[in-house]
Design brief:
With 398 residues, the chain is α/β, with parallel strands linked by helices. It has helices at residues 63-76, 105-113, 122-135, 155-158, 165-170, 179-192, 247-254, 259-268, 271-276, 282-290, 294-318, 328-333, 335-343, 354-359, 384-396; strands at 5-11, 16-21, 28-35, 43-48, 51-56, 83-90, 101-102, 141-145, 202-207, 211-217, 220-224, 323-327, 366-367, 376-379. Strand 1 and strand 2 form a beta hairpin.
């Protein structure tokens, strides 16, 4: 084990995820999840060596309290003195950052400037950054941006067909998300297929409660489904994905809803949850569909159909397709979703190998298409924390 470990932090508005990684071999030595932050019953759960335990955060139920509790846990395990740097997931760097960067006062100001592009996420990331700077004094901190990978998109891909002055004045354009995952998966796919990344035309689907898809060619992102915010694109757990923008005026006039109510509905009450009326969890949706739940069956078909359509469009963006890649919690574990998606792609010469598809679950990568398919569909587990750790070690000189 290296003497310099990396602490990775991912802060939400009411949560904090943390992981202590050995950057040399990718081993995860400790993880934590703080929940219900800013509420009286806040708590944090630690996991190491397959065992879990919880700690109460009611004395300081915020991000600072969570980081302090994490430090105490690390001390108890003799890990605190081995931390060499801290990496932070940051959702939006806008057009300011096309790569990860050491955090300075100027970078903090830049993240603050991007708050309008990620109003739910960037403020929470800043809380985590400041807590880490105060509690782990003297250690370098690195920001790793979800949007950075997508900064290679050509202008015609990121531009909305609205008055151009809105982009010039307010930065209204498509930014994408999940970029850290895409960067890791693109590299892993090339390695798994024994190809040079620059020679592969990849369409990568990152499927989880939040879901998106990206086209990668010549080693860089050409297009992605998420836009100004993570609401655009695919059907997700609670997000609607693409809708007619006139839904706002329609619901304002007919349902007496405000802009904030409609935005909240599209982000938190739509997607699989909204269509099914059952759950936002794909596992519950699949189980419900198998048991005859009509809402779950419809939600499943809408999810798969939208994804299959986007695969076609991203194939255009990539200039063709050599590899269709499934990743993320759903992409890695749901053979049913993958099978249904592939059933739409026969016209592209892409055919499912059923037994291989069944085998590629629970962390097992694999090619899930037949030998005569014109392109390979593969399952590649993502590891955003390790990607963040690699960037953090590189920029910190470890």
């Amino acid at each position: 084990m290296t003497q310099k470990l990396i602490l990775v932090l991912n802060c939400g508005s009411s949560s904090l995820k943390g992981a202590v990684l050995d950057n040399d071999n990718g081993d995860v030595l400790l993880t934590c999840l703080a929940e219900k932050l800013n509420l009286p019953d806040a708590f944090i759960t630690f996991k190491a060596n397959g065992e879990k335990h919880q700690a109460d955060l009611s004395a300081e139920p915020n991000h600072t309290g969570a980081v302090k509790a994490l430090l105490e846990e690390m001390k108890a395990r003799g890990l605190d003195s081995k931390i060499g740097a801290i990496g932070h997931r940051v959702v939006s760097g806008g057009e300011l950052y096309s790569d990860s960067i050491l955090i300075t006062d100027e970078v903090i100001a830049g993240i603050e400037k991007c708050i309008p592009l990620a109003p739910l996420h960037n403020p929470a990331h800043l809380l985590g950054i400041r807590a880490a700077q105060n509690i782990f004094k003297g250690l370098p901190n690195v920001a790793v941006f979800d949007t950075a990978f997508h900064q290679t998109m050509p202008e015609h891909a990121f531009t909305y067909a609205v008055p151009h002055e809105l982009y010039e004045k307010y930065g209204l354009r498509r930014y994408g998300a999940h970029g850290t995952s895409y960067r890791f998966v693109a590299d892993e796919t090339a390695r798994f297929l024994s190809k040079d990344k620059k020679d592969l035309r990849m369409v990568i689907a990152h499927l989880g409660n939040g879901a998106s898809i990206a086209a990668v060619a010549n080693g860089v992102c050409q297009d992605t489904s998420m836009g100004l915010t993570p609401l655009e694109g695919l059907v997700m757990g609670t997000r609607s994905g693409d809708v007619d923008p006139s839904i706002f005026s329609f619901l304002a006039e007919n349902a007496n809803m405000t802009i904030s109510q409609i935005t909240d509905m599209l982000n938190k009450k739509s997607g699989l949850l909204g269509v099914s009326g059952l759950s936002n969890d794909c596992r519950a949706i699949e189980e419900g569909a198998a048991n005859g739940h009509k809402g779950a069956q419809l939600a499943l078909e809408v999810f798969v159909y939208r994804l299959a359509k986007y695969i076609g469009s991203m194939t255009v963006a990539a200039g063709g397709i050599d590899a269709l890649v499934f990743s993320g919690g759903i992409g890695e574990n749901s053979e049913l979703i993958r099978s249904k998606v592939l059933s739409y792609l026969g016209f592209m010469g892409i055919y499912e190998d059923h037994e291989a598809n069944l085998a590629a679950r629970f962390g097992n990568p694999g090619v899930i298409t037949t030998a005569d398919s014109r392109a390979k569909a593969v399952v590649i587990p993502t590891n955003e924390e390790l990607m963040i750790a690699h960037d953090t070690a590189r920029l910190s000189g470890l």
